[in-house]
Amino acid sequence: MFIGNIVSIFIAICCSYGFYLYSSNTGYVAHWWPKEAACKIPSYKTQIVSEDPLLVYIDNFVSEAEASQLLHIGKTQFAPSKLSTGASGEAYRSSQSAGLPPSDPSVSCVGSRALSLMASLTEPSDDFGIPQLVTYQPGQQYKLHYDWFQESMRYKDGRLCNRVASVFVFLEADCTGGETYFPRIASTASSLVDDGKAIWNATFEGIMFKPIPGNALFWINLPDNGKGDKRVIHGGLPVHTGTKTGMNIWPLKCEP
């Protein structure tokens, strides 16, 4: 039932917008993004790569102008990426990251669009982490990891929260290498391979997605049993030349 409900969302491609609340005490954003953020939505389309676990490829999720604006917002904020423990972990994650202000109209616009894909996964009381830019230069990578936490994280308001789903948007891809790799996703998404968007063959397990500006990936981290799905382990392969920059958006499922 859970997967069927989510899949139907993508088939319908419904867009829903709600109200916006930002708490200065918690530093996190309430479930809905602002109605004011409603903006011109690109003519994007979705393709289901895997139903279980759910992994969806999205063409033209952000426009070229939106990508440029998001990169401009975060360009002065980049700092070495850290692991969820707060450690630098440079050998494991050698990129740079920048938090994005959720109140910025461009950030809100893309955030509301992401929520149109996953509104049924969270409750109005759940929070959103701050959207994040991540950029990779030659030789930089993020080895295999989960977006969900092994143990729910305690946020400033005292609640325990975890990342129920992920949206990763490619914003800048003037590079070679830097594919996003899911080693445990079995897929025969031949059309994506034929279009040059993915790599899938018998020489390795899983599927790789090439960084293509404007396109995105959506996947479920916590199925309906509430436990982290180990099948969505993924990594950012090393960039060989040039620059790759993406945007992470994570809805948080919190305990009452």
From TrEMBL:
- The answer to whether UniProt assigns keyword Metal-binding to this entry is yes
Q: By its UniProt entry, which InterPro entries does this protein fall under? A: Oxoglu/Fe-dep_dioxygenase_dom, P4HA-like, Pro_4_hyd_alph, Pro_4_hyd_alph_FE2OG_OXY
Q: Where is the Fe2OG dioxygenase domain?
A: 127-253
Query: Membrane spanning segments where?
Result: 6-23
Cofactor field: L-ascorbate
Q: Which Gene3D superfamilies match?
A: q2cbj1_9rhob like domain (2.60.120.620)
Q: Which GO terms describe its molecular function?
A: iron ion binding; L-ascorbic acid binding; procollagen-proline 4-dioxygenase activity
What keyword terms does UniProt attach to this protein? Answer: Dioxygenase, Iron, Membrane, Metal-binding, Oxidoreductase, Transmembrane, Transmembrane helix
Q: Which GO terms describe its cellular component?
A: endoplasmic reticulum
Q: What is this protein called?
A: Fe2OG dioxygenase domain-containing protein
